[in-house]
């Protein structure tokens, strides 16, 4: 792709004529920013909050307008394209605070990206791959040129302010936002139109695909294989976040598979041509981990999205076996439809399913813990659960988690009306202690002081394992002092519960032998049938 920077101004004017609604939408959002910025310090009205929320949806609105341009502009339906500039206005009177920056908001942006890729209706895989490549390249160059323009203006402004001792204003910030809302989208539109007839893959994109993306996908796959073998040997369940890791692998692998149609050197064809088979162990990891989380903790909005994404991912990976059904445009369209259903259709949206599922789970825990007040028919107040009763304590923690999730999703007023306040206490048997030395520490006879919390000091190395703290000299790996903290704490259990007696504090946090003195900074421990030290921080070592 060759871009003459001297023609950027003329290109923008041309884009203004060809994409008037995109330009007007960008100007509208720039006006929103100006209003929000000017009134932000003077008003806390609902309108300002709503403007801020609507501004966060700018990518979605811009993609929608651009897609209508691609689909309707040459037809009689272009009136919808012209009217689409008004779409953000009704949302200024809608409370979007429970939507923006949630999982639904994230998938709305993903939906916008899928629509951007699919709006030109390229049903043949090679054409779709070329369109995706052009989209990525146009986005990269539009962002680069837009930020370069903003940086140039900022440099000129700062120079003028410095030379003429002028007072600084927010002018650079406004220039940057103008570039973000107006210049970058128009540059993207212009670059997409300019490159619509070019089919050569840019050299830098081939380098990214062959030497960054594909090797990263292969290494990532190998890591998941090693993890799969490890948990199979130890007969363990996958970690909770493994589903998102497998999903990320599938997305990048599918992108790499698609771009193999465009690269001149098909270096990794051996990997992508067999990816449907290679992906089986990661898919097993995904489904075991996801089903275990759903079975244990029920659905939330994020787990609904993950579950449906997993179903689509599984189908898409096996679609690659067939050229007829392995259609990338079809995958993008189906994914977009699923996101629309899960995000915007009441009753069957991911949020609705999550709320319904967590309500059922909350009521199970209320029944199991006998937390329903017979008089108020709401949650009992002031109930204390101690970790010594581990089963009820864990159930109480889950009840708190359910209540907190529903409170975030439905609002505190609704939860108070339906269930009352969640006023329970889950006391943990985890404790933290730091020393108290009212009389100070006697250091007579010691000649050298080594602060252990200074990271650039490496003379001595501390290690805590199974409640035993060991200090080794780095030069010869010789143990100079060792202390069994568990034994001391269990022999002084009464004091540990009351945390008094300075003499015992000296004995716990200070350890001496013939050659040195060890001073601890803090100790963390768990209390059950016995006391067990989980961690200890060394403050200093004194050497004679």
UniProtKB/TrEMBL annotation:
User: Which residues, if any, are the signal sequence?
Assistant: none
Superkingdom to which the source organism belongs: Bacteria
Q: Which UniProt keywords apply?
A: Membrane, Transmembrane, Transmembrane helix
> What is one Pfam family matched by this protein?
DUF4153
| TM regions (residue ranges) | 54-72, 102-123, 135-154, 174-191, 212-235, 241-263, 270-291, 303-321, 328-348
Q: What is this protein called?
A: DUF4153 domain-containing protein
Source organism (scientific name) = Bacteroides nordii
């Amino acid at each position: 792709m060759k871009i003459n920077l001297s023609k950027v101004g003329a290109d923008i004017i041309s884009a203004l004529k060809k994409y008037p609604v995109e330009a007007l939408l960008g100007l509208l959002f720039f006006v929103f920013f100006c209003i929000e910025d000017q009134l932000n310090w003077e008003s806390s009205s609902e309108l300002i909050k709503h403007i801020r929320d609507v501004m966060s949806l700018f990518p979605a609105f811009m993609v929608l307008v651009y897609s209508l341009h691609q689909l309707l502009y040459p037809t009689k339906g272009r009136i919808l394209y012209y009217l689409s500039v008004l779409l953000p206005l009704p949302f200024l009177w809608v409370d979007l605070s429970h939507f923006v920056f949630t999982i639904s908001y994230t998938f709305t942006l993903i939906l916008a990206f899928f629509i951007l890729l699919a709006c030109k209706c390229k049903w043949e895989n090679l054409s779709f791959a070329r369109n995706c490549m052009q989209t990525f390249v146009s986005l990269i160059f539009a962002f680069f040129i837009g930020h370069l323009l903003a940086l140039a203006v900022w440099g000129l402004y700062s120079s003028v302010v410095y030379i003429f001792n002028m007072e600084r204003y927010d002018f650079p910030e406004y220039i940057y936002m103008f570039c973000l809302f107006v210049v970058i989208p128009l540059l993207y539109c212009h670059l997409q139109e300019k490159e619509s007839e070019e089919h050569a893959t840019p050299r830098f994109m081939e380098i990214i695909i062959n030497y960054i993306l594909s090797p990263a996908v292969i290494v990532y796959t190998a890591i998941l294989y090693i993890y799969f073998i490890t948990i199979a040997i130890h007969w363990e369940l996958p970690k909770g976040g493994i589903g998102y890791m497998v999903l990320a692998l599938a997305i990048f692998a599918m992108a790499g598979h698609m771009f193999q149609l465009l690269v001149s050197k098909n270096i990794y064809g051996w990997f992508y041509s067999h990816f449907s088979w290679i992906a089986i162990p990661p898919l097993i990891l995904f489904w075991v981990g996801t089903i275990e989380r759903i079975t244990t903790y029920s659905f939330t909005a994020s787990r609904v999205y993950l579950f449906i994404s997993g179903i689509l991912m599984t189908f898409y990976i096996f679609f690659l076996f067939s050229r007829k059904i392995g259609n990338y445009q079809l995958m993008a369209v189906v994914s977009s439809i699923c996101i629309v259903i899960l995000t915007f259709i009441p009753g069957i949206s991911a949020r609705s399913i999550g709320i319904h599922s967590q309500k059922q789970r909350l009521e199970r825990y209320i029944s199991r813990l006998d937390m329903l007040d017979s008089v108020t028919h709401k949650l009992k107040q002031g109930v204390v659960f101690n970790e010594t009763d581990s089963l009820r304590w864990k159930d109480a923690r889950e009840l708190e988690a359910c209540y907190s999730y529903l409170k975030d999703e439905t609002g505190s007023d609704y939860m108070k009306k339906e269930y009352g306040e969640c006023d329970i206490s889950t006391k943990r048997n985890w404790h933290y202690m730091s020393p108290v030395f009212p009389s100070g520490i006697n250091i007579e006879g010691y000649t050298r002081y080594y602060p252990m919390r200074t990271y650039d000091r490496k003379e001595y190395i501390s290690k805590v394992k199974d409640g035993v703290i060991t200090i080794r000299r780095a030069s010869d790996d010789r143990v100079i002092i060792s202390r069994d903290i568990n034994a001391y704490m269990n022999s002084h259990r009464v004091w540990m519960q009351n945390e008094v007696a300075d003499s015992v504090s000296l004995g716990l946090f200070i350890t001496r032998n013939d050659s040195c003195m060890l001073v601890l900074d803090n100790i963390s421990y768990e209390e059950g049938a016995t006391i067990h030290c989980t961690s200890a921080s060394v403050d200093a070592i004194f050497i004679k």
